[in-house]
Every structure is written in C-alpha cells, then in structure tokens.
Amino acid sequence: MAEPAQALPAFTEFAAPAAWRSIDFLSDLHLSESTPRTFEALARHLRCTEADAVFILGDLFEVWVGDDARHEGFDASCTAMLAEASSQRFVGFMAGNRDFLVGTEMLADCGVERLDDPMVLIAFGERLLLSHGDALCLSDQPYQEFRREVRSERWQQRFLAQPLTQRRRIAAELRAESERLKSQQQPGKWVDLDAAATAAWMRAAGTPQFVHGHTHMPATHEVAPGLTRHVLSDWDLDHPGVPRAQVLRWQRDRLARIAPATSQ
Ligand SMILES: [Mn+2]
Q: 5 C-alpha vs ligand 1 centroid, how far in Å?
C-alpha cells in the first residue's frame, strides 16, 4: 500500500516591492558568545551589502530561550546589530530549529519582519520557495516528533513560564542530546530533505526554485526535471577547519553565491 501523502503546508506569498533590485539569503550562523568572528562577519555584511533586503532563513542563533534574554550580554549585542540592519534595509527572519522561540517582542524591538516557513517570495517576475528545511527531513522520525512537540503552543507556554536560568539549562541539555545523536551518524549519511516531499511542496507552491538551509551541505540540486533547490551554506569563522560564510544573492534572472560584503 502506498504511504499516505504528506499533508501540504500553507504557502504564504510575499510580493517584493517593485523597487528591489537585489535580495540576500543566508542561514545557519548559529551565533553564540563563542562565535565572535562569525558575528562580526554578519554585522559587516548587514552594514555593507548592496542588497535591498536580507532574508535570514533560520538558525541565526545557536539557541534562543526567550525574548526576555534580549536585554543582556550577547543576546543584547545581536538585538542591536539587527536593529541597526533593519534601519538600513528590509530584514526578514524565519525560525530555524535552534531559534524557533524568537518572538514578537524581539522582532518588534529589532524592526525585523517575521517570515513564515514555508513561504513563496515573488520578485523579478519569478516565484521562489523559501524554508529553513528541517520540516522536510522526514527520514528522521524522532526529530519530526520532537519538532511537533516543541512547536506546539502548549510546550512553548510551559517552557517560557520557567525562570531564565532553568530554560538555559534545559536548552543546553537538549543541545548535548542532539550532538550525541549527530555523532552517532556516519558522515555523508546526515539526514537530507525528502526528495518526493520536496518536489510535492515545489509543485504545490508553483515554484521552480527552492532556497533552504539547515543541512549545512551547500549545493545546487535538480530535484526533478525543471525543479532546482539551492542549499545555503552555514557560517563558521570561529572553529578549526575550513572557514565558511556565504550569501546567496537573487537578482533578475540570476541567483549567485557570493562572499559576505566587507566594504561598500
Ligand atoms: Mn537547522
């Protein structure tokens, strides 16, 4: 018997203002106190990019335990950086699996627009599907169950009702558990997006191109004839290994991977 078809999400449409000439996509910076170089690279890009808009497609933060943390320390620096950026150009934020608790108060303070996951961005006479990507990693069933739970109103209300120190402790435990599970997977066998469900989303949304992050495996793939997905790079300028930082820039008839801006 055939598997029951995965329920399709709603595809919110966002029409770019006609004046926009250039749109930047980035994701998976996993910013924290221990990533000062990555933070600086993003701050510089947000100040110097020539794009009219920057769309952040999830996991901007390594963890976000509630908007009440935004007034202190590293989280306060991030709030200030985003507020400065949004005073210069449109900045949109889509929740990832690490920072889905970024709330209305934080975004309002920063002047950043919330982006639905998934959504369809309409610009330059074309339609582009945008998502963080984790909702399509269907082969990881325990993760999908965890995702349903933590995205529920009930879980979030209960979590946010706890003191900040307690929330930080729970977040650290969840992260340690997720690192442990990841370390058990063989390299190259990391969970990727389900191909059939991805094609179904793209057909339902009427989008020949799809931009997402989450997997940290930047590449351009043909999903099916006429359907292309562009996987964003993660950013990491702070840990040993090859430094990574990349922006996907959309202009009329053109999607290109570029280095972050360092000057105007
Ligand atoms: Mn992610």
A: 24
Question: In the chain, which ranges are continuous DSSP H helix?
Answer: 36-48, 73-88, 104-110, 141-150, 153-160, 164-184, 195-205
CA 51 – ligand 1 centroid, Å: 24
Q: Are strands 119-123 and 113-115 parallel, antiparallel or unpaired?
A: unpaired
Q: Give residue 99 CA to ligand 1 midpoint distance, Å.
A: 9
- How many helices and strands in the chain, by DSSP H and E? 7, 12
Centroid of ligand 1 to alpha carbon of 62 (angstroms): 9
Tens of pLDDT, residues 61-99: 999 999 999 998 999 999 999 999 999 999 999 999 999
Structure tokens given for 17: 């203002």
Q: How many domains, the chain?
A: 1
| 264 inside domain | no
**For residue 6, is it within any domain?**
no
| pTM of the full structure | 0.94
Joined together, the tokens standing for residue 183 give 């370390």
Ligand 1 center–CA 19 separation, angstroms: 31
- Exposure class string for 69-100: b at 16+ Cβ within 10 A, else e: bbeeebbeebbebbeebbeebbbbbbbbbbbb
Any idea what the CATH number is for the domain that residue 120 is in?
Answer: 3.60.21.10
CA distances from 131 to 76, 83, 99, 114, 117 (A): 26, 23, 14, 13, 5
> Quick one: average pLDDT of 250-260?
97
Ligand 1 centre to CA of 61 (Å) is: 10
Q: Is residue 108 part of a domain?
A: yes
CA distance 218 to 232: 5
Give backbone dihedrals phi and psi of 112, rounded to 5 degrees, phi first: -100, 140
